[in-house]
Design a protein that fits this description.
Elements (H helix, E strand, L loop, with lengths): L6 E10 L2 E5 L19 E5 L12 E8 L5 E4 L10 E10 L2 E5 L6 E4 L12 E8 L5 E4 L17 E10 L3 E6 L3 E6 L12 E9 L5 E4 L4 H18 L3 E2 L7 H8 L3 H13 L3 E4 L2 E4 L1
Parallel strand pairs: 13-15
Antiparallel strand pairs: 1-2, 1-4, 2-3, 4-5, 6-7, 6-9, 7-8, 9-10, 11-12, 11-14, 12-13, 14-15, 16-18, 17-18
Helix pairs in contact: 1-3
């Protein structure tokens, strides 16, 4: 059984001027059952420029099988950065009317259809994708990687992690793949400005769900974040000639738009500046002393 989108060991059964034909000696079931990976072809060509020197009939070769530009199954000894059901960060090579094409190191670029994009991507961007088989039996990429990520992250509360953003949904927050493998979410309450998919972030684990999925914050703990928040308020006050019409009763969205802070963070910041004797709290706003 020859499997599309997977690394597999096949046997050389015939040699031609175009290369060697490979066949499978195994009838084992697919190792990844989410997509239909088995193809109808019983033999697959490994092009001449891919054939290791000295290869002969009966030899076994470790290859990856995909489809070429004419939709024919073809083998390669090049190991791509992801196989069926896996995720990887790939670079957008170009965009077209049908979607974007990603560089994955093979002769034929990988298609990322428009419907599989969580945001419109641009040439040169690096994005996290998973590999799947579409209804036409072609290998394609998707940015909807939630179901492909692991939930057994080896991290605990307050650990520092690195991740890549792959989707933002206003109702829930910003979805992140930690180490490009583990499922994580920056909850809506923690998101001041939505992050674009492809953005690499440093974050702090705030909660580990029972299934191992993570909740993150890109802000420090409140007592550590206070100084930088207060500095931001102070800078904006100076730019506004010492007065801003914002206070603890101001609309949270107005505070976020002006300061890039949640209302609670803003209140902590101005409280800190007030205790330090740097500003005074007036009925209609805050003013530098």
């Amino acid at each position: 059984m020859i499997m599309l989108g997977q690394l597999q060991t096949l046997t050389v059964c015939r040699s031609t001027e175009n290369g060697v034909y490979l066949e499978s000696k195994s009838e084992a079931a697919p190792s990844f059952s989410k997509d239909t990976a088995a193809i109808s072809e019983t033999r697959v060509l490994l092009p001449r420029n891919q054939v290791p020197e000295g290869t002969k009939h009966g030899d076994t070769l470790r290859v990856f099988v995909y489809r070429d530009s004419e939709d024919r199954a073809i083998a390669t000894t090049t190991v791509p950065p992801l196989t069926l059901g896996e995720t990887a960060v790939l670079t957008v090579k170009e965009t077209s009317p049908i979607g974007a094409f990603l560089d994955w190191g093979l002769a034929k670029d990988l298609l990322l259809p428009f419907k599989e994009q969580t945001t419109k991507v641009k040439q040169g961007e690096q994005i996290l994708v998973a590999l799947y088989i579409d209804k036409s039996g072609r290998l394609c990429a998707t940015m909807h990687v939630y179901d492909y990520l692991c939930g057994n992250a080896p991290y605990k509360k307050d650990d520092r992690v690195t991740g890549i953003v792959y989707e933002h949904i206003d109702e829930f927050g910003t979805y992140v793949a930690v180490d490009s493998v583990y499922s994580a979410l920056i909850p809506r309450r923690e998101v001041i400005t939505p992050l674009r998919p492809g953005t690499v972030i440093q974050a702090r684990v705030t909660k580990v769900q029972p299934d191992g999925r993570l909740e993150l914050s890109i802000r420090e703990k409140a007592y550590l974040q206070m100084d930088s928040d207060a500095e931001r308020v102070l800078t904006l006050l100076k730019e506004a000639d010492g007065f801003l019409p914002y206070h603890d009763k101001s609309n949270p969205e107005a505070i976020k738009a002006k300061f890039g802070l949640s209302k609670n963070s803003f209140k902590r910041a101005i409280g800190h500046l007030y205790k330090e004797g740097i500003l005074v709290l007036e009925e209609n706003g805050i003013r530098l002393k």
